[in-house]
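Exercise 7.
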Amino acid sequence: MPTFSIIIPVFNNAEGLERCLIGVFDQSIPKDQFEVFVIDNGSIDDPAHVASKFPVNFILENRFKGSPYSARNRGLEKATGDIVVFLDTTCKPSKEWLISGLNCLKNDVDLIGGAVKFDVNHSSSVGEIYDSVSNIKMKETIETRKAAVGCNVFVKRKVIDKLGHFEEGLRSGGDLRWTHAAVKNDFILKYCEDAYVSMTPKTLPKLFQKTIRVSKGHPKLWLESGDFLKNFIKRFLFFWLPPNPIYLYKNIKESSFPEAGRYFTSLFFIRYLFRVISAFGFLIGFFKILNRQK
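Solution. The predicted structure, written as tokens, is:
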């Protein structure tokens, strides 16, 4: 059996890290078949204490604090596995996660994005339910954008050798750019339903922070893809319009919690709010690019 290197960046989520590592060390394959790297990139809630409870390699990222991609790079520098797995502290892997990911990497597949199932129910807050409906659509991202979200990704060593590491210092967008670059280099990216993780959803304040951070990184992605003008006009101008209720309904039905339909009105207005917030994020990212070019 091939060996695995599991790379987990952590930033102020020691509680999530413990839940994540419990899932990692509950895998059905022998523990000597995988190594685990936990990289702290500036936390203040002592993830080192949590990591000390498990047989992991704990690394500090001191240069680019707050960058999950620099943290992942520190893990890549130490990783020895045949397959590198990127995992986030918000995710708890299912028991057959590693073996399922390995099975999906057969038949000339080079990298996969595993399913992400949000841990939500009727007792969850409306913000958490909105997160489960609107974010981390792994299958859709892979099939339509030819890229994968980095919270649950398996990569063969030859892809790492070809592409190298992530861009240092990034706060968002690096996983999409890197996996899309893999596809452009003729590596095969597929979605894997069976290699799933259970994700802890974000509350509204956390979603607000994430929306600003992610939307600021989009203009750079658009420049690199050569579709900056089209995307900027589409995203900035159209984001002032109300969201499409039919698309929202489709998102709900395909989500981890299709019963969220009873909260449709609240989810609709929250989506409208976050579309407007995203438009401001795009502007911030755009002006950052202009300032760098001066």
